[in-house]
Amino acid sequence: MVTKQSVATILIVDDQPSNVLLVHEIVRDLGEVLFANSGPQALQMVQRVVPDLILMDIEMPGMDGLAVCEAIKADPLLADVAVIFITSHHDDSNQIAALNLGGVDFLTKPLNLPVARARIETHLSLRRKSRLLDEVQRDLRDIVHNLPAFISQWDEQCRNVFSNDLEGRWFDISAEKMPGLALADVIGDINFATVAPYLKALLEGFNPSFDIAFIRANGQFLHGQVSFVRREQDGQFCGFLMLMTDVTARKQAELALHDEKERIRITLNSIGDAVIATDDQGIVTFLNPIAEEMTGWLGSEAIGLSIELVMPLREGIDGHVLQNPIRIALKERRIVGMALNCTLIRRDGMPFEVEDSAAPIRDHNGKITGTIIVFHDVSEARAMAVKMTHLANHDALTNLPNRMLLRDRTEQALATAKRESGRVALAVLDLDHFKTINDSIGHTVGDHLLQQIAIRLKSNLREIDTISRQGGDEFVILSPRIDELEIISTLADRLLKAVAEPFFVDGNRFDLSASIGISIFPDDSDDMESLYRHADGAMFRAKQEGRNRVRFFSAEIEDVLKAHLTMTRQIRAGLEDHEFEVHYQPKLDVRKKIVVGVEALVRWRNQDGQLVSPAYFIPAAEQTGLIIPLGKFVLKQACLDGKKWHQMGYSLRIAVNVSVVQMMEGAFIATLREIVDETQIDPRFIEIEITESILAGDATKAQTILEAIREVGATVAIDDFGTGYSSLTYLKSFPVDVLKIDQSFVRDMMVDRSDAGIVEAIVQMAKSLSLRLVAEGVETRDQADTLLGLGCDIMQGYLFARPMPASQIDEFLTKNND
């Protein structure tokens, strides 16, 4: 349905064409004119187009004008259409009836055309103004009801007259239900108590505005901005308007901003760095407590002063004034780091080495509004860096240059010698038997000795020489500019004498000696690695020749070193290629004439099929650590073979030699457990043979290891017993099960009364301590008979059997034990 046209629409309703023409003449230029010649037709037309004015005859056949008017007025969409009746009768009753039905005027026939036109124009004008007023009222109503605000009118008793809250979104009361309610009932007693002072101001003639936090029915806060507008009639208070806007979002933003400012303030006051803020002219606006402490200025004193006065900076080396980074940040509009070696002079004159940066602060338009500088005291950090640099290049115990610094100085000395065709000497000094001091007296005393030795050695060197501790008890001396070999020879002799002078620690005297090896550039070597290797080889030769001496490198020493390296490579390859075998030497109970055990002995069958003597490869394996995988192989193979013999019915003890390197390696016990679990051998038949040298080292560690062997279930035998020292102490202190009399005593016991006495003493000692005995190296019947006479029943040696492969042991057992 069309409800609004650009020009007035006039509907003429009359059943007489002549009347229609006449009326048309009157209104043709007043708007769009429509015609209907009956009441029903008129009703159909007004459903399609709502006219602004209907000119309708009362007397019409079928449905008269009054009935048409009544039907039109009954339709809410047509009720405000203006209807002017035209009639030829002057009956007041018709006029009254027409007016009662909603007619706005009458025109009587015959029509007075000017009067009729004037009256029609008047009604059209009223119609236009009424429509404009309706539109204004509708727009105003839409605005009021859709404003994001609560608008209400209240009478002098604070009772509601009007509210724009159609849906009750503000106080859960719709505009329809609010009229007549008291303000306290609408907003709640708590909120009413809050606004009461402002209502009092309203009565006193004011229009107060205020912010308030309303408590909603659901308990949430609604932050509102409220205005009361006083209404008067005849100068008397008659009520007021209440306007309220929801400023919750703004209030929350303000609170969030406040919280953020507080968080930033607490953060700035809590961080470990100093923070100073300035305006865009470099005038201080803020200092945090650390900045106050470092500058010596309180915030209340510093605010308003220039940054240079509060934070004067100097160059750390020559002390000249430095430009504050804030000035550069303001000028160049960028983040600026402080200069190196920057020193802050505190208000009392105390200097602080500082570092960090300054940055400009920009507003939302990008305009610089100030700066902030963050800095911290790096005095300790820089001192620590210097200290760490020193520690990185020096030995922590002796404060001598370490390997890294020695390498750097050696390379410089070699470069200089190459340019000047000069000589450089490198000496390796190793203390003799120093490990014994650490093992017997303790590392604390050993460390004190090393510190004294370092001081004494350094005092006997030239200014251009460098002495370095490489670890343990080894020192390396670099001597550049050796014009004559006598210089380094004399220097080395002086160092030996310095070490030989007595040392005292905690009142105890220590007499030491050292071995020195020397290599010369370019005579012996052309780079640092070979220079050190050759000097180390010469030192090794000095120890071999009796210690406490100096030896220079020679080609013979180099050959020995190369042979050692070759052996190491061959052993490693032999392990990878499974060239090692385990042979066994039987142990017999000579009195019962049965085999009671075997000793596992490693053999190496090289690629030519020849057996290599253990004396050739065992020392090299121990020195390189290859004894660990080699020893694990022997232990596992011996357990596998032992398990097989046990399953054949022979209760043999399987003895396996374990070196010092294996024993002191942290994983030995775990390896033993792993092999026992894997081979499923009864651990009671495993006998771990150790030498007395293991017990002479770290006694606490040895005790722990031996007890762990016992926990696994195996037994412990001391091999070569009697060749070491403090044997009685070991037997008393350590968990030992078996003593093996060394073959050197057995070999000469028949011709040397001392050896015979030693053997007899060992046998008696073992009996008194309830230890089992095994005699090694028995080669003659006389030796066997004598040992039997002394009470030693278990023997091994060439008299009974040589070491043999496992397959031959099978035959040997069948022959001797069946």
Automatic annotation (TrEMBL):
Task: Write the record's keywords in alphabetical order, separated by commas.
Answer: Phosphoprotein
Which ranges carry the PAC domain?
208-259, 338-390
Asked if the record carries the keyword Transmembrane, the reply is no
Lineage: superkingdom: Bacteria
What region holds the GGDEF domain? 422-555
Sites where 4-aspartylphosphate occurs are at: 57
Keyword Transferase listed: no
Domain (EAL) ranges: 564-817
SMART domains membership: EAL (SM00052), GGDEF (SM00267), PAC (SM00086), PAS (SM00091), REC (SM00448)
Which NCBIfam families does the UniProt record give?
Answer: GGDEF, sensory_box
Q: What protein name applies here?
A: Uncharacterized protein
| Annotated source species | Undibacterium macrobrachii
Q: What is the lineage of its organism?
A: Bacteria, Pseudomonadati, Pseudomonadota, Betaproteobacteria, Burkholderiales
